[in-house]
Design goal:
Structural class: mainly alpha
Oligomer: single chain
CATH class of the largest domain: Mainly Alpha
CATH architecture of the largest domain: Up-down Bundle
Number of strands: 0
Radius of gyration: 20 Å
Helix content: over 70%
CATH superfamily of the largest domain: MFS general substrate transporter like domains
Number of domains: 2
Length: about 400
């Protein structure tokens, strides 16, 4: 029990710091960039470019890590923290828009890129005998995002947008220090020979071999793109949705805090649920919740329904993230697991890119309701795809 507390605490620190930085870099990206003179159009271009680059970069890095050379999960996270630390420090003092564009896009992309590696690190350490309560650590990461979001709004108003980069730099110092000391002792590591044999048994170096080995996973990835098209539509255009329902910035803060804090209890308890329900079945369930969440907004007439919609975060995102992590760990050989986690994150990113590109056009030309109807239809296609890919897998396998 003692070692489980120690390992879970260490991994929790990494998650809380990661999602605190995710808040300052992603949730407040537009706030920072607007303060540096960027237009809404140029912000959209920057974020879309960073997202596309990240979606391509994640599987590439994962393939290198999975080969078992010098670059490990832990080392990549440490290097990422140092790059973001340096970038955020530079962004505090430079004013050139071209330089800001390049550096912000780089650290935004890197921060996305090491998210699947964080997940893979947990399962790597679990297999080495380090007892980590993944759901609790990941749920507390969401709580870290919620608290940071609640605090940064008033702090930025008082101290200015440069504070975002100062806070990011401090978070990265803590993260780099934490991951430097987060390593298994020799007596807790499993036999290396056994690991290497397992790695050799599951080598799928190119994308064709990988996807032909896991055909259900391909359909799941497509479903994930559809789910997160709808999910990002709500998040990216939340202020416009809230204003159409009679709310404003205050309600935006409440809504963001609500959906983030609701993730904690579900993620913390997901391990108990997985004893009875397979990760695949939970993924189908979460897809239905994504659909219901956006469908409610199609018919919403006031802010009460916005909060009802956001409460479905309990069953949508909060279930999807840990269930997807366990699904990859369940169904793939050790040599493919970092790639698997990376493909999931890439699919999430691609869903966001398509949402960024299409939702704004629909909103400007057709209005709010057609945008939400489009998101609902896309999400429904995701539910159907996920059901065909995963619906028959009913075996819970996590102890």
């Amino acid at each position: 029990m003692g070692k489980k507390v120690v390992w879970t605490t260490g991994y929790t620190v990494l998650n809380v710091m990661y999602f605190a930085a995710f808040c300052t870099l992603h949730a407040y990206a537009a706030v920072f960039l607007l303060s540096r003179g960027f237009s809404n159009t140029s912000i959209g271009i920057l974020l879309a470019a960073a997202n596309v680059t990240s979606a391509l970069f994640q599987p590439f890095v994962a393939g290198i890590i999975d080969k078992g050379g010098w670059l490990t999960n832990r080392r990549f996270i440490f290097i990422s923290c140092l790059i973001i630390l340096a970038g955020s420090a530079v962004l505090r003092v430079i004013s050139s828009q071209a330089a800001v564009f390049v550096i912000f896009a780089l650290i935004y992309m890197i921060q996305f890129a090491y998210q699947p590696v964080m997940t893979a690190l947990c399962f790597e350490y679990q297999k080495k005998g380090c007892d980590i309560y993944y759901g609790l650590a990941r749920g507390l990461g969401s709580a870290g995002f919620a608290v940071t979001s609640a605090l940064m709004g008033s702090a930025v108003t008082k101290y200015g947008e440069t504070l975002l980069m100062t806070v990011t730099a401090v978070i990265m110092i803590i993260s780099a220090t934490a991951v430097f000391f987060f390593r298994p002792a020799k007596e807790e590591a499993v036999d290396i020979t056994a690991v290497e044999i397992k790695k050799e048994e599951g080598t799928h170096g190119n994308i064709k071999d990988f996807f032909s080995t896991y055909p259900a996973f391909v359909l799941f990835i497509i479903a994930t793109v559809f789910f997160f098209f709808a999910h990002n539509m709500i998040n990216d255009f939340m202020i416009q949705i809230i204003r159409s329902l009679g709310g404003g910035e205050k309600e935006l803060g409440y809504s963001n805090f609500l959906q983030a804090i609701l993730e904690l209890p579900v993620m913390a308890l997901i391990g108990l649920v997985l004893k009875r329900v397979s990760p695949a079945r939970l993924l189908v369930f979460s897809g239905v919740a994504f659909f219901v969440k956006i469908l409610i907004l199609v018919f919403a007439s006031n802010m009460v329904w916005m909060f009802v919609s956001q409460s479905f975060q309990l069953f949508a995102y909060a279930v999807f993230i840990p269930a997807a992590a366990y699904y990859v760990s369940d169904t793939m050989t050790e040599n493919d697991q970092v790639k698997g986690q990376a493909y999931v994150t890439s699919a999430i990113t691609i869903g966001g890119v398509f949402s960024n590109l299409l939702s704004g056009i629909i909103l400007d030309n057709l209005g709010m309701k057609p945008m939400l109807v489009t998101g609902s239809l896309v999400c429904f296609l995701g539910v159907v795809t996920a059901f065909f890919a995963l619906g028959r897998d009913s075996k819970p396998s996590w102890k």
